[in-house]
Amino acid sequence: MTELPLRPNVGACLFNREGLVLIARRADQPAGEAASGAWQLPQGGLDRGEDPEAAVLRELEEEIGTRNAVVLGRMAEWLDYDLPAHLVGKALGGKYRGQTQMWFALRFLGADGEIRLDADRHQEFDAWQWAPLASLPSIAVPFRRPIYERLARDFARYAVPA
Q1: How far apart are CA 8 and CA 47, in angstroms?
Q2: Where is each Nudix hydrolase domain found (predicted)?
Q3: Which of 66, 131, 143, 160 satisfies CB 3.0 to 4.6 Å to 19 for a cystine?
């Protein structure tokens, strides 16, 4: 497992004008797992040579159908996680042991109607909602929980009405 690299990735904490963050439910989860870890923040792979800020806006457009947002801030460093052993070789195309992620805080400038989960032919999510930032750790799968705890702490300054 340690021979596999970490996949470069960007993630978005997209805040609305009320200071709530967008979470989305993965479309590929079995029905009984919808309540435990199927909800997450938008995120996606960073292409070789791609600027992370440009990548996070691209990922928003691909996953939720809009890039109508402005970057408020970003983490000071990359955050890493390893996949659980049973997912190594299966998840992330079987090429990575986990991900190294640059997380961004963004303010959504549009109306809720602009959010379209079917914008991309590979629809990743089947539902979305606005949630309090502090709830992130409780929605995360265990291997992502430390990152979501860090986001809840470090991005709290952005979880305010605009």
Answers
A1: 8
A2: 5-153
A3: 160
Instruction: Give me the amino acid identity at 52.
Output: P
Q: Rounded to an integer, what distance in angstroms lies between the CA atom of residue 79 and that of residue 142?
A: 15
Question: What residues have CB less than 8 Å from 133, skipping those under 6 apart?
Answer: 13, 15, 19, 20, 21, 151, 152, 155, 156, 158, 159
Report whether CATH 3.90.79.10 matches the domain 6-158. Answer: yes
- Domain extent listing, the chain: 6-158
Distance CA 75, CA 81 (A): 15
Report the predicted TM-score, pTM, of the whole model to 2 decimal places.
0.93
pLDDT tens-digit readout, 63-119: 999 999 999 999 999 999 999 988 888 888 889 999 999 999 999 999 999 999 987
